Amino acid sequence: MAAPPTPAAPSVWTNSLGMPFVRVPAGSFWMGSDESAQTLAQAFPRLEPKRFTLLGDEAPVHRVHIRRAFYLGQHEVTVGQFRRFIEASGYRPESEADGTGGYGYNPDYDPATTARGDAFEGRNPRYSWRNPGFVQGDDHPVVNVTWNDAQALAAWLSRTEGHRYRLPTEAEWEYACRAGTRTRYPHGDAPAGLVSEANVFDQAAAPYWPRWQQHALPGNDGYAFTAPVGRFAPNAFGLYDMLGNAWEWVSDWHSDTYYAQSPPSDPQGPAEGSVRVRRGGSWHTWAFYARCAFRNWNSPQTRYTLVGMRLVRETDEEDGIRDVPRESLSVPIETGAGPVKPIK
Ligand SMILES: [Ca+2]
Ligand SMILES: [Ca+2]
């Protein structure tokens, strides 16, 4: 008897800065979440009920078609890759160019004594992508980078390589994160399962943040701060750390009401806005906020210890990259089931 076929390994292409990209095929998916406050309260019993009423921007769940395959960074952009970009281009990241710095972890910093009560010290010129206040190797995700810094990196790569780079759209990001799944997380709905799948707020991080200890997942993922990229299992598209490690900027402006008006094919987000979306949660993020559907946002100038990026390289006809036949992918792109509730 023949052995069952093994899923094809993703086709990986590496750019001039050493960033591996995997091809994400065109397809359709259900975007967003319309879970009720009651359902969420059962799954996350330690959270205050008001948190479950603030998720209106995740609904309605709506069908989205991604009409074109794209290459997505297999990992978050790393410190080493960002350094090579800075050295080759002469670009000055916003945190250094505007002189106000970034944010950082300082064990002596007391949020209770500050007006904003922020978890991290900043802005402060001692902090930037070079120093978030905790140790990072070159293989950790770069943080303290702004949406504008991501634009600069994409523009420089496009110019020097002749391929078109950009941030993913919010729809491309969620499609890539879900990789054929409909659940809260790619592994399923159970928050506790996330600790073995992603670097989030867990028992490794909790001792550094005693105030939020009760929100730490019960397991230990091994990382109190950022982890080297690719330490957890990839999703069905071969992508690592879509959830956790560092939040990832996407290209869209944020609007609370966008999903109700979103075009079904290749949505690009609102035409204008004041804040850009970030996705996926980070090493410091509670499981509730590391769901595939959760949306967060900041101004394009925001730099923070939790926020990094991952780039798209668009496909083109002449680049000689071997396209993976859709049939060989291990994930069903189309899910037969409709949304739990009818789309309004
Ligand atoms: Ca962790
Ligand atoms: Ca991430």
Automatic annotation (TrEMBL):
Residue ranges of domain Sulfatase-modifying factor enzyme-like in the record: 21-313
Which portions of the sequence form the region Disordered?
Answer: 92-121
Which terms in the Gene Ontology molecular function aspect does this entry carry? formylglycine-generating oxidase activity
Q: Which InterPro entries match?
A: CTDL_fold (IPR016187), Sulfatase_Mod_Factor_Kinase (IPR051043), SUMF_dom (IPR005532), SUMF_sf (IPR042095)
Q: Name one Pfam family in it.
A: FGE-sulfatase
Could you tell me the superkingdom of the organism this chain comes from? Bacteria
Question: What SUPFAM superfamilies does this protein map onto?
Answer: C-type lectin-like
- The protein in question is named Sulfatase-modifying factor enzyme-like domain-containing protein
